[in-house]
């Protein structure tokens, strides 16, 4: 048994402030007690000091928040981040599909998986829902690398029997490989599996039906796909499925809409689809940097809140322009404001932590630094750049947090802890 304590300024937002006025928990001088990677106590240091006994206490300089949870990101696309000139469908054809073909090579997948997870930790992200490629080896590479780092990663083999040459499975092989991967990786470390049809246009009806069958057969797996991202995409889906009420209804017809479903984007949703998402308890991972970069539009927070939809936050690298959940939260604020719904900084932190964890069905494990949860946390430095230091001097907690979201990036991540152990240290890396 290993036990230790971390003292410092601690902030978490375990519930959506939209629904819970007491969602923000803050200790200006707090302490986390961690035993074998699990938070066993949290509170004000003054109130807990006498109970710590001989437990070693490490003082952390900065704002301690839960490790970030990225609700939608593509690890095979990281080397195509900042690819110029196209909206979604052409961008996939020109930049992404050629890059993903390389993941048939396990050595390539291993190298990218290692670099990808290093970027996550450097940016303070400790859990993520990750797209792989159509190749089973791409999942093996990511999961093995995540096991070695003790990270909480959910992923799955992409199912796309209507993909381009060299990047397509079949309905039968997609299901067989998915079942084999679930059997191989279920219950190992902190890993989770997601049934992953790429999107409605890249799977046949038979494959969408088989994805629904696998999802129904395994109550511990998620459904992870894309929804209503781009207007041209939406038009193509409507043309292929003329009898469907809307894009979401396509997935619904194949048993893919439910409490374990995570849909990326949701930029162009009908009110009917929003109501169905809320009724089914499915969730949407908002990806603001990606939506702006590809010219897809901006998510409608007001519409989502009117329907009480569950939402989280994703970087969507490589269409997304940064691994930083701080930066992503800042762009989410701008996107929300464009539609008349300014995003409170505490709610933005919730979406980047416990809110995304709830989409991934891991909110009992991570996201709030509550006793019983895994000790994944990040130490933020609001003095990381001269401008940040100037803006946060004498500021309130809300002002400091907002400044970190607007001006912060990987430089503001002083340390990242996974299961109570330091997995990234900015100052040590600089030496």
Commentary on this structure:
- The chain is of the alpha/beta class and 431 residues long.
- The chain has 16 helices and 16 strands.
- Strands 5, 6, 7, 8, 9, 10, 11, 12 and 13 form a nine-stranded parallel β-sheet that branches. Strands 3-2-1-4-14-15-16 form a seven-stranded mixed β-sheet.
- The radius of gyration is 21 Å and the shape is globular.
- 54% of the residues are buried.
Cα-to-Cα separation, first versus last residue: 32 Å
Q: Care to count the β-strands?
A: 16
Radius of gyration: 21 Å
Give helix % range.
Answer: 25-40%
The number of helical runs is 16
Low-confidence stretches: none
Let me know the largest β-sheet: 9 strands, parallel
Strand content: 15-25%
Shape assignment: globular
Structural class by helix and strand composition? alpha/beta
Mean pLDDT: 97
Write the layout of secondary structure elements.
Elements lengths: L2 E11 L10 E12 L2 E7 H4 L8 E10 L1 E7 L13 H14 L4 H17 L2 E7 L4 H14 L2 E5 L1 E2 L11 H15 L6 E6 L7 H13 L4 E6 L3 H10 L6 H6 L8 E5 L5 H10 L2 E4 L1 H6 L7 H6 L3 E4 L11 H14 L6 H15 L17 E4 L5 H7 L4 H11 L5 E6 L2 E5 H5 L1
Question: How would you briefly describe this protein structure?
Answer:
The protein has 431 residues and is of the alpha/beta class. The chain is built from 16 helices and 16 strands.
């Amino acid at each position: 048994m290993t036990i230790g304590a971390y003292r410092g300024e601690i902030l978490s937002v375990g519930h959506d402030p939209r629904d819970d006025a007491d969602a923000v928990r803050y200790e200006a001088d707090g302490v986390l007690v961690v035993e074998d990677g699990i938070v066993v106590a949290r509170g004000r240091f003054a109130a807990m000091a006498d109970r710590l006994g001989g437990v070693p206490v490490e003082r952390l300089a900065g704002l301690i928040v839960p490790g970030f949870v990225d609700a939608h990101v593509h690890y095979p696309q990281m080397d195509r981040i900042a690819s110029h000139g196209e909206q979604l469908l052409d961008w996939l054809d020109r930049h992404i599909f050629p890059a993903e073909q390389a993941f048939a090579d396990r050595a390539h997948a291993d190298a990218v998986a290692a670099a990808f997870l290093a970027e996550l930790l450097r940016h303070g992200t400790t859990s993520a829902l990750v797209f792989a490629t159509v190749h089973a080896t791409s999942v093996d590479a990511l999961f093995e690398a995540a096991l070695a780092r003790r990270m909480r990663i959910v992923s799955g083999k992409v199912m796309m029997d209507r993909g381009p040459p060299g990047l397509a499975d079949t309905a039968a092989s997609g299901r067989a490989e998915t079942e084999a991967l679930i059997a191989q990786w279920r219950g190992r470390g902190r890993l989770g599996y997601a049934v992953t049809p790429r999107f409605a246009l890249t799977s046949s009806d038979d494959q969408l039906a088989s994805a629904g069958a696998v999802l129904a057969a395994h109550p511990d797996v998620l459904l992870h796909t894309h929804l209503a991202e781009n207007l041209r995409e939406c038009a193509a889906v409507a043309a292929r499925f003329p009898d469907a009420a809307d894009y979401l209804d396509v997935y619904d017809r194949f048993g893919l809409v439910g409490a374990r479903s995570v849909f990326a984007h949701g930029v162009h949703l009908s009110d009917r689809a929003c109501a169905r998402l809320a009724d089914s308890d499915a969730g949407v991972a908002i990806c603001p940097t990606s939506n702006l970069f590809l010219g897809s539009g901006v998510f409608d927070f007001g519409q989502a809140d009117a329907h009480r939809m569950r939402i989280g936050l994703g970087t969507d690298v490589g269409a997304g322009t940064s691994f930083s959940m701080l930066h992503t939260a800042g762009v989410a604020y701008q996107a929300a404001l464009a539609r008349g719904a300014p995003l409170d900084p505490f709610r933005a932190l919730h979406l980047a932590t416990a809110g995304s964890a709830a989409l991934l069905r891991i909110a009992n494990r991570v996201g709030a630094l509550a006793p019983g949860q895994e000790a994944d946390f990040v130490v933020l430095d609001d003095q990381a750049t001269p401008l940040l230091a100037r803006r946060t001097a004498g500021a309130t907690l809300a002002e400091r947090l907002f400044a970190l979201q607007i001006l912060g990036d990987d430089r503001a991540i002083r340390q990242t802890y996974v299961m109570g152990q330091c997995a990234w240290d900015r100052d040590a890396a600089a030496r």
